[in-house]
């Protein structure tokens, strides 16, 4: 009904956090993203999957401006990325990113890794920054390692710290770029558990992963990419029960047969 | 005419009297070369026309003799109305000359930092300046502590070049004694030993700092 959809609250809900239109990207002559259209509404958790080289990591790195693109638009809460430096910076502030290889700062303690942006970007005083950081370190269940250096932690612990570090800036959109791919099998669960807990908090998530169990449990929608295109974008239930594209079927059969 | 031990001892106070100048020239040249070298490297890294110009400047500096720099600054600049004291010219010359080398050292130290570090800094919305100060520079220093220390010792050992500008540093003072007494072995030996002592001291200090840097969160 018109009256209902034009209600201010409903209208806000309908504005997508992430809106990608006609995105194309080339690495020199190689086109790695082809006509990507994707909207991510607030609170929605999207898993992006597909074979390696399909462009999923490149796509997610475009969403916070780490990768430039040549054609199309990306808007975060209506702010365009890649048009000018100021808007890009404003849009990027809405995002938090977790990398495959953690990328913690090795010369800083766990706590200092988390407080750096709080102090330098949000200009919080030291005490307040530490309190915020400790809250997030507690949420990822690693507060006791606050004074440790990254090298003293296991891979799983480092990735949980990286998640806490990203959360410190209170992002509206969390981006995960294969967060468990560099981990030993026994450490994958502790990271996924943290991400599942995070999903319950209502934050918008875009996650590139091969963890189909996690996708089934957490994702609202699944995006399947192949050769730089989105070939399937469906609700999680539909994707797992009746993915239409043969490439997606093949992928699911291979992954789920393990 | 053998080595006169007593004469050698008697030259020590005079030569040590110049240690202040030697240390001043060393410390200020190290600082100047580091600041200039890091600035050059940052500009070169920025690319573009200025980056290219600085790249040529660095190569130019490294391809010319340090004596040429000192003579040039001391004898040619006054023609253009720029008159600087001998000590100033010496420090300026050594700073410029070694900045070219240190830029290369800084480059190696930054290249060795994984790309993900800068990406993490960008993802956290750190400014470029903050990324350099809080993420890149500390890791760079850790990577280059050893070669940087070598260059600091090199700069100490290059301060005798300043003698050509009549700066009263240690080797120059030793040579003055030699010219007056016609005895070369003793004052030059004393100067040599003093340089050795200073160099060992700097090396030791650098090693200590390096160990401390490495101890903090070894990768």
TrEMBL record, chain A:
Coiled coil: none annotated. The keyword ATP-binding applies. GO terms for molecular function: ABC-type amino acid transporter activity; ATP binding; ATP hydrolysis activity. The keyword DNA-binding does not apply. Keywords: ATP-binding, Nucleotide-binding, Transport. It holds the Pfam family ABC_tran. InterPro entries: AAA+_ATPase (IPR003593), ABC_ATPase_HisP-typ (IPR030679), ABC_transporter-like_ATP-bd (IPR003439), ABC_transporter-like_CS (IPR017871), MetN_ABC_transporter-like (IPR050086), P-loop_NTPase (IPR027417). Belongs to the ABC transporter superfamily. This is Amino acid ABC transporter ATP-binding protein.
TrEMBL record, chain B:
Belongs to the binding-protein-dependent transport system permease family. HisMQ subfamily. InterPro entries: AA_ABC_transptr_permease_3TM, ArtM/GltK/GlnP/TcyL/YhdX-like, Ectoine_EhuD, MetI-like, MetI-like_sf. GO terms for molecular function: transmembrane transporter activity. This is Ectoine/hydroxyectoine ABC transporter permease subunit EhuD. The keyword Transmembrane applies. It comes from Mesorhizobium jarvisii. The lineage of its organism: Bacteria, Pseudomonadati, Pseudomonadota, Alphaproteobacteria, Hyphomicrobiales. GO terms for biological process: amino acid transport. Its main location: membrane. The chain crosses the membrane at residues 12-40, 52-74, 80-98, 148-167, 187-206. Pfam families: BPD_transp_1. It is a multi-pass membrane protein. Keywords: Amino-acid transport, Cell membrane, Membrane, Transmembrane, Transmembrane helix, Transport. One of its GO terms (cellular component) is ATP-binding cassette (ABC) transporter complex. It is found in: Cell inner membrane; Cell membrane. Gene3D superfamilies: MetI-like.
């Amino acid at each position: 009904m018109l009256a209902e959809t034009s209600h201010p609250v409903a209208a806000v809900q309908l504005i997508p956090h992430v809106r990608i239109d006609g995105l194309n990207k080339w690495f020199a002559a190689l086109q790695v993203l082809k006509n990507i259209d994707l909207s991510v509404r607030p609170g929605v958790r999207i898993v992006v999957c597909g074979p390696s080289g399909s462009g999923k990591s490149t796509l997610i790195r475009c969403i916070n401006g780490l990768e430039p693109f040549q054609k199309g638009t990306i808007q975060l809460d209506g702010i365009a990325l890649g048009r000018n430096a100021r808007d890009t910076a404003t849009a990027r502030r809405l995002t938090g990113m977790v990398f495959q290889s953690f990328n913690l700062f090795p010369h800083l303690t766990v706590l200092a890794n988390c407080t750096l942006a709080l102090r330098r970007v949000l200009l919080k005083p030291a005490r307040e920054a530490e309190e915020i950081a400790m809250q997030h370190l507690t949420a990822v269940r690693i507060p006791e390692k606050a004074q440790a250096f990254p090298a003293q932690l296991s891979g799983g612990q480092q990735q949980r710290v990286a998640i806490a570090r990203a959360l410190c800036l209170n992002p509206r959109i969390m981006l995960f770029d294969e967060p468990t791919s560099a981990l030993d099998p026994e450490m994958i669960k502790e990271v996924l558990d943290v991400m599942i807990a995070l999903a319950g908090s209502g934050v918008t998530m875009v996650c590139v992963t091969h963890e189909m169990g996690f996708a089934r449990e957490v994702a609202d929608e699944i995006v399947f990419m192949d050769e730089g295109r989105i070939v399937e974008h469906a609700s999680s239930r539909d994707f797992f029960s009746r993915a239409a594209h043969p490439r997606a079927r093949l992928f699911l059969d291979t992954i789920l047969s393990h | 005419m053998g080595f006169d031990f007593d004469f050698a001892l008697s030259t020590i106070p005079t030569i040590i009297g110049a240690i202040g100048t030697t240390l001043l020239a060393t410390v200020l040249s190290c600082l100047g070369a580091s600041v200039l070298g890091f600035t050059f490297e940052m500009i070169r890294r920025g690319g573009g026309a200025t980056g290219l110009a600085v790249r040529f400047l660095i190569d130019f500096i490294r391809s010319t003799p340090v004596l040429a720099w000192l003579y040039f600054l001391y004898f040619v600049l006054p023609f253009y109305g720029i008159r600087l004291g001998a000590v100033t010219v010496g420090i300026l010359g050594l700073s410029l000359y070694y900045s070219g080398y240190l830029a290369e050292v800084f480059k190696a130290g930054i290249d060795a930092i994984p790309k993900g570090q800068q990406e993490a800094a960008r993802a956290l919305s750190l400014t470029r300046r903050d990324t350099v100060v809080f993420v890149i520079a500390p890791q760079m220093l850790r990577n280059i502590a050893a070669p940087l220390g070598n260059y600091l010792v090199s700069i100490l050992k290059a301060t005798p070049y300043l003698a050509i500008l009549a700066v009263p540093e240690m080797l120059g003072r030793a040579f003055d004694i030699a010219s007056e007494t016609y005895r070369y072995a003793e004052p030059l030996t004393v100067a040599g030993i003093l340089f050795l002592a200073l160099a060992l001291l700097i090396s030791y200090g650098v090693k200590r700092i390096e160990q401390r840097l490495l101890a903090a969160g070894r990768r």
